[in-house]
Amino acid sequence: MPGASVQRARSCGAMDPSTKNLIRKLLLAELVGVVGFYAIYFRLHANQGSPTGIPFIYFSAYYKWNERCGIHGVREKDQMKWSNSEN
Question: Where are the transmembrane segments (predicted)?
Fold first, then answer.
């Protein structure tokens, strides 16, 4: 029955245009979210010496993310840097 599999493949490939637009928008939103997360993470990782100009909620999410990934001690190192820079 090779003809049946070809017919089934064609019917699966025909999507409604609104469904295609929805899938594109979801993929674009996912891409924007991943790029935004990476940009914020990279900025926080690169600027560990100065907490000015970056909202506190980003730091707490950054530290929690590192701890969940198994990178411990970042929060303590930053606190030591900030306390030394204030003196």
Answer: 26-44
